[in-house]
């Protein structure tokens, strides 16, 4: 008799379904609660009456957040850093991973030296001094360049290129194409899944970045949105009121303003995920199975 | 291996050796076909030399004293001065203990929980499984700034929903984010909330490759679900589990310092101050580069030793290893 009909297994199924339902609720709850807060009017927010549904629809918090000058500039800065970082990162990953997926001389040594950096880094201060020594402080390059090749992503990419059907490249080689042309014309067009995956990871990394901006940027007008969000949301309780001036108090509560900031900064990522989901499942699995 | 082969070649009888000229053209042939690969590698290798190995060399700073206005790499050698300094620094030992407590607790709770979560999700059909994965991996993509911001909102003593619930139960408001006693719970709890779903993907991928015939065979032998999990599933995904374990031990000491920095307040510093935040404050806020570098170097070496040690241990126990 199969275990599937046993009493114990049925009980387990029931328990498992209940557990997953609770887990999913616990994961989604903070997002939904803050979404509700951001759209509620201040009386309901202050009174603590909002749970999962907005009370007294009021989109004023969004109007206030979006018209705030440093939110707008933060958005533009973050967008620039994300786009440039993602393009540079994908480019560097590709030109590093492709040769290393081929049996070229010195490959093993190079791989070892790259792998080693996964386990031993220079540390915060020596990295800072290198970036400073190169005169990159307070420029976008300090955000983009020092972190553009992540060894773990490199490994995923190398194993993707390794699994690439050899015949295609061989026939191109017979036609007289060199490695670079083969990469451009044959390999890249067929590597959309892994490129989309790496692009997504890098875009998320650069969009969410705040720490590097904190230590490498000095001018507030270059701050990305997450650093602005940190000042507004994770800063002192009064920060939002100071940032928004005295008028910020009249009808909007600090809580719905903060909730609106959180929602606005999360929006681009939330919009990206479903779009890239199909690709990254394939891409991640690839890296995952390899370990 | 290569050395061995070339030695063999050298010892081979003269007649078997390649004439000098032919081996040169062979090398020329190799370059003619492969130079483009090396051209592509040029920029990435430069990156690794400057931004990965440069900072490693920059650790020399730990042995040198910086004079204001002088070179970034210091002016004179001071030997182990800064290492002695932190060995005698009570603050260092305080953050050292905090780091270890937080990291070990984190590993002991998060590591098995992720595996259990993956095993439970694996019991569902394909459609439900991908829905659960979509929902549970979403927080992974959210910035820690946002996660800490959400915690502050939800847990706020004035108007936060959690304290609202506590109030209904007749419990006085708790200043969660400021109390040293709550810091570890909140840190680990929010980490589990944020990363479990995503980290489980690697196990789910490994689970999907287990041969169904093995389950059929086990079922023929009368194995229930639990013993199938124990005798079929776990041994099959053991290589993946080992690799994840070694990697997370390597990450043990540098677990989420960005989040700690965001959650840090002077009033919870008793439990929230860790080595990385200490390095940040000593190095970048007080500009004591050399001292901070010395601490960072020791912490980095400890992590490295941890990875190598675990790798050796896991290889001996299970036969699987990272390299």
TrEMBL record, chain A:
Positions of the ABC transmembrane type-1 domain: 75-273
Ranges that cross the membrane: 12-32, 75-97, 109-128, 140-161, 182-207, 257-276
Main location: membrane
Coiled coil: none
Keywords: Cell membrane, Membrane, Transmembrane, Transmembrane helix, Transport
Protein's membrane topology: Multi-pass membrane protein
InterPro entries in UniProt: MetI-like, MetI-like_sf
CDD domains: TM_PBP2
Gene3D superfamilies: MetI-like
Classification via PROSITE patterns: ABC_TM1 (PS50928)
Subcellular location: Cell membrane
PANTHER family documented for this protein: ABC TRANSPORTER PERMEASE PROTEIN MG189-RELATED-RELATED, POLYGALACTURONAN_RHAMNOGALACTURONAN TRANSPORT SYSTEM PERMEASE PROTEIN YTCP
Protein name: Carbohydrate ABC transporter permease
Organism in which the protein naturally occurs: Cohnella hashimotonis
From TrEMBL, chain B:
Localisation: Cell membrane
Pfam families: BPD_transp_1 (PF00528)
Keyword DNA-binding attributed: no
Organism listed in the record: Cohnella hashimotonis
Database matches in PANTHER family: BLL4140 PROTEIN (PTHR43227)
ABC transmembrane type-1 domain: residues covered: 96-310
PROSITE patterns: ABC_TM1
Lineage: Bacteria, Bacillati, Bacillota, Bacilli, Bacillales
Keywords: Cell membrane, Membrane, Transmembrane, Transmembrane helix, Transport
Residues passing through the membrane, by range: 35-54, 103-124, 131-151, 192-210, 230-253, 291-314
Family that this chain belongs to: Belongs to the binding-protein-dependent transport system permease family.
Protein name: ABC transporter permease subunit
């Amino acid at each position: 008799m199969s275990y599937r009909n046993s009493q114990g297994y049925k009980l387990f199924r029931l328990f498992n379904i209940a557990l997953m339902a609770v887990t999913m609720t616990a994961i989604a709850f903070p997002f939904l609660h803050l979404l509700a807060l951001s759209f509620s009017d201040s009386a309901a927010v202050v009174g603590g009456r909002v749970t999962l549904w907005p009370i007294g629809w009021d989109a004023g918090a969004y109007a206030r957040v979006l018209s705030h000058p440093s939110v707008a500039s933060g958005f533009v800065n973050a967008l620039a850093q994300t786009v440039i970082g993602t393009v540079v990162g994908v480019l560097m990953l590709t030109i590093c991973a492709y040769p290393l997926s081929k049996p070229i001389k010195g490959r093993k040594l190079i791989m070892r030296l790259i792998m080693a950096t996964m386990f031993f880094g220079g540390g915060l201060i020596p990295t800072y001094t290198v970036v400073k020594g190169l005169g990159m402080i307070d420029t976008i390059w300090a955000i983009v360049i020092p972190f553009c090749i992540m060894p773990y992503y490199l490994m995923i990419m190398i194993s993707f290129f390794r699994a690439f059907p050899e015949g295609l490249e061989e026939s191109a080689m017979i036609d007289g194409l060199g490695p670079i042309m083969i990469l451009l014309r044959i390999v890249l067009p067929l590597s959309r899944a892994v490129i989309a995956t790496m692009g997504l990871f890098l875009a998320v990394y650069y969009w969410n970045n705040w720490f590097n901006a904190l230590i490498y940027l000095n001018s507030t007008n270059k701050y990305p949105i997450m650093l602005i969000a940190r000042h507004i949301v994770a800063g002192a309780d009064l920060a939002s009121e100071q940032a928004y001036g005295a008028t910020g108090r009249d009808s909007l509560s600090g809580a719905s303003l903060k909730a609106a900031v959180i929602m606005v900064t999360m929006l681009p990522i939330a919009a990206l995920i479903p779009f890239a989901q199909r690709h990254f499942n394939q891409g991640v699995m690839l890296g995952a199975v390899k370990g | 291996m290569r050395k061995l082969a070339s030695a063999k070649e050298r010892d081979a009888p003269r007649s078997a050796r390649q004439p000098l000229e032919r081996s040169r053209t062979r090398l020329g042939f190799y370059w003619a076909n492969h130079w483009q690969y090396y051209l592509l590698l040029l920029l990435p290798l430069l990156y690794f030399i400057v931004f990965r190995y440069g900072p490693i060399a920059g650790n020399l700073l730990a042995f040198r004293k910086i004079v204001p206005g002088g070179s970034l790499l210091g002016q004179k050698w001071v030997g182990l001065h800064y290492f002695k300094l932190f060995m005698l620094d009570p603050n260092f030992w305080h953050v050292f203990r905090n780091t270890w407590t937080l990291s070990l607790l984190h590993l002991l709770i998060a590591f098995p929980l992720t595996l259990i979560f993956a095993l439970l999700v694996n019991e569902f059909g394909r459609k439900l499984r991908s829905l659960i994965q979509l929902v549970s991996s979403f927080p992974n993509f959210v910035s820690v700034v946002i996660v800490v911001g959400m915690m502050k909102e939800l847990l706020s003593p004035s108007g936060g929903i959690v304290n609202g619930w506590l109030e209904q139960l007749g419990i006085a408001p708790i200043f969660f984010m400021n109390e040293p006693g709550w810091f570890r719970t909140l840190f680990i709890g929010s980490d589990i909330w944020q990363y479990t779903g995503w980290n489980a993907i690697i196990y789910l991928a490994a689970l999907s490759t287990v041969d169904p015939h093995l389950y059929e065979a086990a079922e023929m032998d009368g194995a229930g679900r639990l013993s199938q999990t124990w005798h079929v599933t776990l041994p099959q995904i053991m290589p993946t589990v080992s690799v994840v374990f070694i990697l997370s031990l390597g990450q043990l000491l540098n677990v989420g310092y960005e989040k700690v920095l965001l959650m840090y307040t002077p009033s919870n510093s008793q439990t929230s101050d860790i080595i990385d935040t200490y390095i940040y404050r000593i190095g970048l806020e007080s500009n004591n580069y050399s001292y901070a570098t010395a601490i960072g170097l020791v912490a980095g070496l400890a992590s490295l030793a941890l990875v190598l040690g675990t790798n050796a241990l896991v290889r001996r126990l299970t036969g699987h290893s990272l390299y």
